[in-house]
């Protein structure tokens, strides 16, 4: 699923999630968040990953299970996961 597909599936999720990534990982504005993958940058290490997961859960009022936390390997995967969890909560 591309970011634009994810936006269509869950309006507002990708842009909001991008903001969460930038804030939780303390990213500069020039980082290509949409194509970011786990460990592509120093800030997205195991500690950064847990901070990111907590920030996403808080922002979107969702809860990831252990497998989802482990499988969250990129921004695009995170968009898909949040979209899926939000659709189940509706």
Structure description:
The chain has 90 residues and is mainly α. It has one domain (3-84): ACP-like (Non-ribosomal Peptide Synthetase Peptidyl Carrier Protein, Chain A). The protein is built from five helices and no strands. It has helices at residues 3-9, 13-24, 46-60, 66-71, 75-89. Helix 2 (13-24) packs across helix 5. The longest helix is centred in the middle third of the chain and has 15 residues, at 46-60. The protein starts with a helix and ends with a helix. The model is unreliable at 1-9 (pLDDT under 50).
Mean pLDDT: 90
H and E string: HHHHH
The number of helical runs is 5
* Beta-strand content: under 5%
Low-confidence stretches: 1-9
Beta-strand segment tally: 0
Query: What class would the helix/strand composition place it in?
Result: mainly alpha
Q: What is the CATH topology assignment?
A: Non-ribosomal Peptide Synthetase Peptidyl Carrier Protein, Chain A
Q: What top-tier CATH class fits best?
A: Mainly Alpha
Helix content: 55-70%
Supply Rg: 12 Å
**Oligomer, anyone?**
single chain
What is the CATH architecture descriptor?
Orthogonal Bundle
How many structural domains can be distinguished in the coordinates? 1
**N→C terminal distance:** 21 Å
Q: What about the largest sheet?
A: none
Question: What is the CATH homologous superfamily assignment?
Answer: ACP-like
- Principal-axis shape equals globular
């Amino acid at each position: 699923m591309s970011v634009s597909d994810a936006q269509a599936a869950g309006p507002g999720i990708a842009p909001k999630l991008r903001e969460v990534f930038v804030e939780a990982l303390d990213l500069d504005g020039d980082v290509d968040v949409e194509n970011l993958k786990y460990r592509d940058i120093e800030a997205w290490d195991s500690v950064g990953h847990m901070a990111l997961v907590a920030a996403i859960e808080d922002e979107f009022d969702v809860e990831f299970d252990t497998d989802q936390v482990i499988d969250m390997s990129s921004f695009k995967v995170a968009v898909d996961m949040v979209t899926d969890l939000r659709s189940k909560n509706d």
